[in-house]
Input
Amino acid sequence: MKFTKLADRVGGPGADAWDIHFAAIERQRNGDNIIVLSIGQEMLEATPSVIIEAANNSLQRARHHYSEIGGEEDLRAAIAKRYSAQLGRAIEPDNVAVMSGAQNALFAASLCVLEAGDEAIVLEPYYATYPATFTVGGARLVPITTKPEKDFIPSADDIMQKINERTRAIIVNSPHNPSGMVYPRELINQIVQICRSNNIWLISDEVYAFLAEPGTFCSPASLPDAFDHCITVSSVSKSHRMTGWRVGWAIASKPLIDQMFNLSVCMSYGLPMFTQDAALVALEHSAVIEAEVRREINRKRQMVISLLNQIDGIVVRGSKVGMFVVFDVRAVPVSANTFAWQLLEHYDVAVLPCTAFGPSGTGILRMNIGESDENLQHACDRIGKLIRSL
Output
């Protein structure tokens, strides 16, 4: 039977990137003691009890019927209040679309602003789902290469050279997955000016913004006259230990939010009330929960970087913020893909090769740091053993 071109676009290297993760999970199901560091979450941490209690109470109150399609009013108001403070401007509930996680929000934004013949600029190394997410409507992805030696910070001049009459969007992910870098305010301002001058969208994936130290992160939508060009995407997944709850959002001008509402009518018809009630309580406790997650993740990052820096043959790159540490194995006599498969097959550790994140990810491996200290130490030890064996 024949499949659509869309099915081809959502497959390919971005989908294949997860093969090693799926193989690790399958072995884990079969009883093997695998250290899974190939996906970004705190593997051993539960959602805070206050959030779980809120969901239970919501269910007991029969909050399990159809919800408001664009998101429950009180949740949208809470998100609007959060971003009014973060962006330094008034954000209304009508500027908020509640979606099934940040991934769904990015996908919906893509469908609303990109179509066949359009081009979207993306900065390498990009998150593995970006190629499918931003070409699903037929647009073409235009990558900007970056260098590991410069911690993957792009150049505004390189971006400007790719602008043409078909450019409809620039996708920015800061703090960045996989590199863990926060783009400098000057660079963000330059990208905003490019978008304003050329009347194009700036899609800002800010899932890891809460992990940045105060004053180090600049949201594009916070800059003067930028808001109407920006689509700001985030969620409670990483910040509130709610990866499986699937509650995220997009912040944008009302005309775009109206378009996302129309899409939600035929795509999801709203999210469960009880998960939205839980997300509302999560946001009410953000000061405590986010600080705890940030403190723990930052501690683990420093530990892992210290361990990896003791291994000859690899170089830690970037890794300033976020739930990952990335390291360069180009000095090793095998590809990053081969290295990752050998690490899983012979040493029972799963990390993700960044090859599918664009050519700038060649020779780079990404490891989640949301595991126990003991498993992170074992993983670094086994990485060292594999390198010595090669």
